[in-house]
Automatic annotation (TrEMBL), chain A:
This is Fumarate reductase/succinate dehydrogenase flavoprotein subunit. Residues 68-473 form the FAD-dependent oxidoreductase 2 FAD-binding domain. Residues 1-25 are annotated as: Disordered. It comes from Ammonicoccus fulvus. NCBIfam families: PRK07573.1, sdhA_Bsu. PANTHER family: SUCCINATE DEHYDROGENASE 2 FLAVOPROTEIN SUBUNIT (PTHR11632), SUCCINATE DEHYDROGENASE FLAVOPROTEIN SUBUNIT (PTHR11632:SF53).
Automatic annotation (TrEMBL), chain B:
Belongs to the succinate dehydrogenase/fumarate reductase iron-sulfur protein family. Signal peptide: none annotated. It comes from the Bacteria. Gene3D superfamilies: 3.10.20.30, Alpha-helical ferredoxin (1.10.1060.10). Residues 150-179 form the 4Fe-4S ferredoxin-type domain. PANTHER family: SUCCINATE DEHYDROGENASE, SUCCINATE DEHYDROGENASE IRON-SULFUR PROTEIN. This is succinate dehydrogenase. Keywords: 2Fe-2S, 3Fe-4S, 4Fe-4S, Iron, Iron-sulfur, Metal-binding, Oxidoreductase, Tricarboxylic acid cycle. It is an enzyme of class 1 (oxidoreductase). It comes from Ammonicoccus fulvus. PROSITE patterns: 2FE2S_FER_1, 4FE4S_FER_1, 4FE4S_FER_2. Its EC number is 1.3.5.1. InterPro entries: 2Fe-2S_ferredoxin-like_sf, 2Fe2S_fd_BS, 4Fe4S_Fe-S-bd, 4Fe4S_Fe_S_CS, Beta-grasp_dom_sf, Helical_ferredxn, SDH/FRD_Iron-Sulfur, Succ_DH/fum_Rdtase_Fe-S.
Length: 668, 249
């Protein structure tokens, strides 16, 4: 690794615009001191209650004078904007979509967990915390997980009240089902479209506030930079995607709820427009970026099957409740799956993890699938998938019951593959999915830039190194409706009586100019390749070098490749068109430019963390039986990265677990 | 597969627009309609042209962002399937396709195949929501909802807000979209309380921005969520219920 200085374009706002083109290969160093997560001390069970009581309040008469910017209208963003608007704050809410309902939360299928513990299957608040911390391989902040569990109880009540029609038992009570990594039934759901129903309900609640005049909603408007003045976040720069108008907005606080960056892999389960630009630009302005290499690979994605394929389609993990996963015993078995007799099938999850079987957590299931595929037992035309077989479930329960449980997923599978999953097994493969990394934030969800808050998948705290199924909708909803509406006012309280930053302030105009210059640079670049071509290639590099499993060799290779690609991007990207109209090539170009920078940090984070934990599986760090080997002596911490003129600098937040003792994850 | 495409090109809202002819020689049966457009755009970019602007996001049929008109049919030839889930293998021996935006007076064209569907959200703003303040909800288990009601609510709630129903309607009505919302909210405990006001507000907004419903049923044939025609009836029924209540705002 070279030690040459790494040139950074995120200079402080008063320096001239720097060239975003890379000049030297990246390197990194480790900072002195430790990061403080600011979690309450004392009894963890009363921590959130005490913190809420300690928060400063804002007199209702003062609230309309305080402006909060919320970026993103997914479950976290719509919830935060609606709740803060309802409280009386002046909320400016931004989304690049044409309607808030289209945020990617809409595509989550399986369900939302809640520690309600109503059934007699042994669930409880404590067990939720244990499952979540263990599932995340002890790389989450315990205090945050406890708060998540506590609020999960009333978040279901709220979502049901604003219109989400949760599945019900015949007697009228809420129905639940089980998910990976958990042996109890605590997942509330709405067929295979839970995310859609929660998202639509949340965006309706947001539009209700728009109608009441408490939230100004700006659709088709993308955040392209953060304005930092006096050491705190005071606004954002946006581009109107229809007119190209670039504008500065001042505010007392900024909330980023812009989702995860799994789409950095190109083929991911995320929507094709999901991106990292808002969080990455905030990072470049000083917000620490935590655990970028912790990316979950979803075990039940559909395999990539054609050259032009634009993304990887996700099938809900709930399918693992009734579908059995297997591969043929014999590598290269060409027979039709229905012709392979029982003794020649390997139900490898049941064999390796008898206690959890099909319900092992996602990282374990993904890794096990990859192991089978690498060993040559993969199935399908490209030998890159495993079978998910409903034959037994169909025989046992009948087609009607299966259709009621998973009908829309079966239809989707048939659309995508042209195969009928009622007649032959589905084929599934691990696909890049949820990102556990994101902007680092403290217990109050404030990033390392004062006044900049983060919610949902854009942040990092809850999931550790692996997210349990059905915890993402929960964390987004809890952040939006029941955490940020307490912690953001606490910050606003000290700003009562001050005006928001003027859009004419020097920090704003300099940032504005930088965004304009960057757009012009992209549009005017005399290149020949579309941004998407770079994105595809970046994805291939990351899957190979920083995918389901990583090694020092694969990561070192990826660092070089990402670097070369980034150089090539700025030399040869072609955008075309004009900056003064709807220009999707330009949108893609700046997103890919940011993905290239982020990918660099992802790979460095994976290289730096010399252990295996959760979704971060370093081949060098495994137990003799091949299971991931955590190193708590050296890595019981969150890596939170800073970009400086001298390269990336790692800050560490030590983690401690008071309620749940450290243990080796064993799902056997 | 060789496919000849006639694609609608329009530089901006003020531009008259025109069809442009293109040929994709290497289309494959497993391609989705949108992947065909991706491929076309690569081809256009290779010769220095401006790629066709079109919308899509989740590409799984959930977000409702995509929606183009194929040979006159919103979303394309496979009934009740969104554009992103239309695959060439299902089109038969097709060699030509004419692709244009969702057409409706309520959806002005922004550029090429991208239209402005904010009129749908204005219907929701008018009343397509439940009035409940954050933190005040009772225990969700204390309000019993029968499985049948929950499932029926879900049938209506499945709408993805793509607007194909409006584009398919000869009158440009949004009754399927609005009715699905009214029916869904009328079936759940909290939504029931204000259903008369909601129906009135939503009905008024429909009249302001969309055409009248003549029960053609064209909407149902294209709806990717399979919303039943009874949603249309819900608009009338819910408004009628509202008539019986005193008018107060």
């Amino acid at each position: 690794m070279t030690t040459e200085a790494y040139r950074d374009e995120a200079d402080d706002a008063t320096t001239p615009v720097a060239d975003p083109r890379p000049t030297a290969a990246p390197h990194w160093s480790v900072a002195d001191g430790v990061l403080d997560g600011n979690a309450p001390t004392g009894d963890p069970h009363t921590a959130w209650d005490r913190r809420r009581t300690d928060y400063r309040l804002v007199n209702p008469a003062n609230r309309p004078k305080l402006t909060v910017i919320v970026v993103g209208t997914g479950l976290a963003g719509a919830g935060a904007a609606a709740a803060l608007g309802e409280l009386g704050y002046n909320v400016e809410c931004f989304t690049f979509h044409d309607a808030p309902r289209r945020a990617h939360s809409v595509a989550a299928q399986g369900g939302i967990n809640a520690a309600r513990g109503r059934k007699v299957d042994g669930d409880s608040l404590s067990r939720f915390v244990i499952d979540t911390l263990k599932g995340g391989d002890f790389r989450a902040r315990e205090a945050d997980v406890l708060r998540l569990a506590e609020e999960s109880v009333r978040v279901i009540d709220h979502l049901q009240a604003i219109g989400a029609p949760f599945a019900r038992e015949y007697g009228g009570q809420l129905a639940t089902r089980s998910f990976g990594g958990v042996q109890v039934s605590r997942t509330y759901y709405t067929r295979g479209q839970t995310g859609q129903q929660l998202q639509v309900a949340a965006s309706q609640a947001l539009l209700r506030q728009v109608a009441r005049g408490t939230v100004n909603l700006h659709t088709r408007t993308e955040m392209l930079d953060l304005i930092v003045a006096d050491g705190r976040a005071q606004g954002i720069i946006t581009r109107d995607l229809v007119t190209g108008h670039v504008q500065a907005w001042g505010a007392h606080a900024v909330v980023l709820a812009t989702g995860g960056y799994g789409s950095v892999f190109f083929h991911s389960t995320l929507a094709v427009n999901s991106n990292a630009t808002a969080t990455w630009r905030a990072h470049r302005r000083g917000a620490l970026f935590a655990s970028p290499s912790f990316v979950q690979f979803h075990p039940t994605a559909l395999p990539v099957s054609s050259r032009w394929q634009s993304k990887t389609v996700l099938m809900s993990e709930s399918l693992r409740n009734d579908g059995w996963i297997w591969v043929p015993m014999t590598p290269g078995d060409e027979r039709h799956p229905n012709d392979i007799p029982e003794p020649e099938r390997d139900y490898y999850l049941e064999r390796r993890y008898p206690a959890y079987g099909n319900l092992t957590p996602r990282d374990i299931a993904s890794r096990a699938a990859r192991a089978e595929i690498v060993a040559g037992r993969g199935v399908g035309p490209l030998k890159n998938s495993v079978y998910l077989d409903f034959r037994d479930a169909l025989n046992r329960l009948g087609r009607t019951v299966i259709a009621a449980r998973y009908g829309n997923l079966f239809d989707m599978y048939r659309d995508v593959t042209g195969e009928d999953p009622y007649r032959q097994p589905m084929r599934i493969a691990p696909g890049a999915h949820f990102t556990m990394g994101g902007l680092w934030s403290d217990y109050d969800q404030m990033t390392s830039i004062p006044g900049l808050f983060v919610g949902g998948e854009a942040g990092n705290n809850y999931h550790g190194a692996n997210r349990l199924g059905a915890n993402s909708l929960l964390s987004a909803c809890v952040d939006g409706w029941f955490t940020l509406p307490y912690s953001v006012p606490n910050w606003l309280a000290v700003l009562v009586g001050t005006p928001p930053l003027s859009p004419d302030a020097p920090e704003a105009t300099v940032a504005l100019e930088q965004v304009r210059r960057r757009s012009e640079q992209l549009i005017g670049n005399p290149g020949s390749q579309r941004p998407t071509q770079f994105h595809r290639r970046l994805g291939e590099i990351l899957y190979a070098g920083c995918g389901v499993s990583r090694s020092e060799a694969s990561l070192r290779r990826a660092v070089e490749q990402v670097w070369d690609l980034r150089v090539e991007f700025w030399a040869d990207v072609r955008v075309g068109g004009s900056g003064a109209q709807l220009n999707q090539e330009l949108e893609r170009a700046w997103r890919v430019a940011d993905f290239l920078e982020l990918a660099e940090l992802m790979v460095i984070d994976a290289l730096d963390r010399t252990e295996s934990c959760g979704a971060h599986f370093r081949e060098e760090y495994a137990w003799p039986d091949g299971e991931a080997r955590r190193n708590d002596d050296d890595w019981l911490s969150v890596s939170a990265w800073e970009s400086t003129a001298d390269g990336f600098v790692r800050h560490s937040e030590p983690l401690d677990f008071g309620l749940v003792p450290l243990q080796v994850r064993d799902y056997r | 597969m060789r496919i000849e495409l006639e694609i609608w090109r329009q530089d901006g809202p003020g531009d008259q627009g025109r069809f442009e002819r293109h040929v994709v020689d290497d289309a494959t049966p497993e391609m989705s309609l949108l992947e065909l457009l991706d491929r076309l755009n690569d081809q256009i970019a290779e010769v220095g042209g401006a790629p066709v602007q079109f919308e899509s996001d989740c590409r799984e049929g959930a977000c409702g962002a995509c929606g183009v008109t194929v040979d006159g049919v919103p979303h394309g030839p496979v009934a009740n399937t969104p554009s992103c889930r239309q695959h060439l293998r299902a089109f038969g021996a097709v060699t030509t396709l004419r692709i244009e935006p969702l057409r409706s007076a309520a959806f002005p064209v922004i550029r090429d195949l991208v239209v402005d569907r904010r009129s749908l959200d204005r219907v929701i703003e008018a009343g397509g929501h439940v009035d409940i303040a954050t933190g005040t909800a009772p225990d969700a288990d204390s309000l019993l909802v029968t499985t049948d009601d929950a499932e029926l609510a879900l049938d209506f709630a499945a709408c993805i807000g793509c607007g194909a129903c409006v584009a398919a309607c000869p009158n440009g009505a949004a009754h399927l979209f609005a009715g699905a919302k009214l029916a869904h909210l009328a079936l759940i405990p909290h939504g029931k309380l204000e259903r008369d006001r909601r129906a009135r507000a939503v009905g008024e907004r429909l009249e302001e921005e969309f055409g009248p419903c003549s029960s053609y049923g064209a909407c149902v044939e294209v709806c990717p969520a399979g919303i039943p025609l009874s949603a249309v009836a819900a608009v009338h029924r819910e408004r009628l219920l509202g008539v019986l209540k005193p008018k107060r705002r």
